[in-house]
């Protein structure tokens, strides 16, 4: 997931369906997120960038630094100040839905049904050639390209359905704090634990009025329930984010060598490491852990309040915004030490 200086935000999920997934090296969903954000200044342009790259280079390859192959197709939630799109893929084929209102989420399944606003030119013909669609009944992308029962999609228990219910409960009154609360929800499976723990979380406020800044909150650490959402605003000459930047290994990076993934370097940044140590304290030392968590929550509430003030008063101090995220990281690190 990520955002760019134009207020374009993209989130990405792994999806599976009827179409086989290639092990050959191609573009990962994460690559497509970065390229979309690098090259587009609106949500729909980002969608176009992604589908053009998909057509030219395909998607696939191992997404883990491991001998164990883990491959998937991708879905994307793409938004800017004015509009939002859901883009879902199956191999080189894809469908896109423009979000017209209400709430919309994605998870680890295809979710675009009959409302298709853009699509791969051969999407339907390919489905017919594979015997997935008879060409007569209404075309339902998720039902055709996967095994999802789309009639029960928002009622059956599953991560997509639970996310939809949590969003729908707050429809029309979702604040950044409510969004953070939803991302912290473990019972629903939104906040994942175990081998596929939620690695990082992001909440963005995209004002429709162009004179107001887009405000992005990032944890930069796993498990949002025990993390601080820190504000970030794109401004010129921003302070380098050294303590949340993963180390680089240049040409010696094992990901750049053939055969791939022979060794696994430590890519954790400083905040990630300190947070991991703090998480152990929170789990094992009840009193100290509770106090630490209270301090983290206090810091986050303070930063949310400051950001709300910026939007309400329409007053952004550029000199403060330059250090906004890095300063908050320093304050978080003090709590851990």
Task: Tag the structure with descriptive keywords.
337 residues; alpha+beta; six-stranded antiparallel sheet; three-stranded antiparallel sheet
Number of helical regions: 10
Number of strands: 9
The average pLDDT is 95
**Which percent range fits the helix content?**
25-40%
Low-confidence stretches: none
**In what range is the share of β-strand residues?**
5-15%
Class by helix and strand content?
alpha+beta
Q: Report Rg.
A: 21 Å
What overall form do the CA principal axes indicate?
Answer: globular
Strand order of the largest sheet: 1-2-3-4-5-6
Secondary-structure element series: EEHHEEEEHHHHEEEHHHH
The major sheet is characterized as: 6 strands, antiparallel
Distance between the termini: 29 Å
Pfam family, one: Peptidase_C69
Protein name: Secernin 3
GO molecular function: cysteine-type exopeptidase activity; dipeptidase activity
InterPro entries: Peptidase_C69
Outline of the structure:
With 337 residues, the chain is α+β, with helices and mostly antiparallel strands. 35% of the residues lie in helices and 13% in strands. It comes from Dromaius novaehollandiae (Emu).
Describe the structure.
With 337 residues, the protein is α+β, with helices and mostly antiparallel strands. The protein contains 10 helices and 9 strands. It has helices at 29-39, 43-57, 123-129, 141-145, 159-169, 176-183, 270-284, 286-313, 318-322, 324-336, and strands at 2-3, 9-15, 73-79, 84-90, 93-99, 118-119, 202-205, 215-218, 230-232. The strands form 2 sheets. The chain has a 6-stranded antiparallel β-sheet, covered by helices on one side. It has a 3-stranded antiparallel β-sheet with strand order 7-8-9. Strand 4 (84-90) and strand 5 form a beta hairpin. The radius of gyration is 21 Å and the shape is globular. The two termini are 29 Å apart. The mean pLDDT is 95. Belongs to the peptidase C69 family. Secernin subfamily. This is Secernin 3. InterPro entries: Peptidase_C69. It comes from Dromaius novaehollandiae. It holds the Pfam family Peptidase_C69.
């Amino acid at each position: 997931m990520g955002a760019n200086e134009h207020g374009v935000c993209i989130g990405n999920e792994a999806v599976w369906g009827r179409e086989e997934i290639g092990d050959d090296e191609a573009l990962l969903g994460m690559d497509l997120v970065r390229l979309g954000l690098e090259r587009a200044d609106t949500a729909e342009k980002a969608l176009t960038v992604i589908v053009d790259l998909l057509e030219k280079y395909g998607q696939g390859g191992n997404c883990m630094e491991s001998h164990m192959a883990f491959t998937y197709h991708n879905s994307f939630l793409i938004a800017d100040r004015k509009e939002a799109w859901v883009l879902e893929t199956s191999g080189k084929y894809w469908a896109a839905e423009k979000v017209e209102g209400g709430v919309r989420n994605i998870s680890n399944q295809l979710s675009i049904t009959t409302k298709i606003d853009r699509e791969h030119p051969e999407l339907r013909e390919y489905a017919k050639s594979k015997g997935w669609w008879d060409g007569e009944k209404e075309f339902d992308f998720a039902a055709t390209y996967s095994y999802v029962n789309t009639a029960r999609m928002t009622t059956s228990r599953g991560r997509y359905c639970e996310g939809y219910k949590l969003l729908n409960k707050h429809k029309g009154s979702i604040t950044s704090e409510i969004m953070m609360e939803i991302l912290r929800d473990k019972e629903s499976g939104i906040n994942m634990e175990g081998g596929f723990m939620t690695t990082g979380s992001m909440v963005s406020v995209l004002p429709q009025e162009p004179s107001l800044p887009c405000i992005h909150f990032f944890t930069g650490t796993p498990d949002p329930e025990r993390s601080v959402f820190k504000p970030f605003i794109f401004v010129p000459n921003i302070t380098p984010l050294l303590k949340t930047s993963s180390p680089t290994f240049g040409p010696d990076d094992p990901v750049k060598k053939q055969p791939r993934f022979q060794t696994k370097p430590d890519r954790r940044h400083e905040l990630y490491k300190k947070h991991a140590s703090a998480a152990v304290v929170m789990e094992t030392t009840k009193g100290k852990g509770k106090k630490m968590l209270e301090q983290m929550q206090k810091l986050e509430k303070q930063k949310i309040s400051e950001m709300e003030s910026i939007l309400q008063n329409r007053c952004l101090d550029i000199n403060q915004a330059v250090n906004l995220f890095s300063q908050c990281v320093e304050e978080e690190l003090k709590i851990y030490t």
